[in-house]
Sequence to fold (154 residues):
Amino acid sequence: MSSVEQKIIELGLVLPETAKPLAAYIPAVQSGNLVFTSGQLPMHEGKLTMTGKVGAEVSAEQAKALAEICALNALAAVKMLIGDLEKIKRVVKVVGFVASAPDFTGQPGVVNGASEFLGSVFGDKGIHARSAVGVAVLPLDAPVEVELIVEISQ
Fold:
């Protein structure tokens, strides 16, 4: 087991199987030394853990926890492609989408769930550029979706 996966376990989490795509795409693709994940929803054991808009049916705190699940699922997609999370040299960018109630403006705090998780797992290699975007709706009425770009060693 890699030290990255050991750190995930120490955080009380388990790296899941990669979620099956919902449409015509693949979970992750490599271009050169970068791996780009497709947007990952807060799926657990093949099911969406929560639905609704953040700031309405879903609290900001709940959404932050869901963003962590999304980031965990994104790491699973990376592992499926490259085989070993130890190959990750750095998390380059995180993009987080937050299905938001019209008056909700706390998207950065929600996406912190993914960012803080990646920092806990990778330390300085987990510090990244980021976008946190509010949207009207996400697939399956998910509250949060996260995608990653990571640099890997060849």
Q: What stands out?
A: The mean pLDDT is 95. The chain is about 30% helix and 25% strand. The longest strand covers residues 88-99.
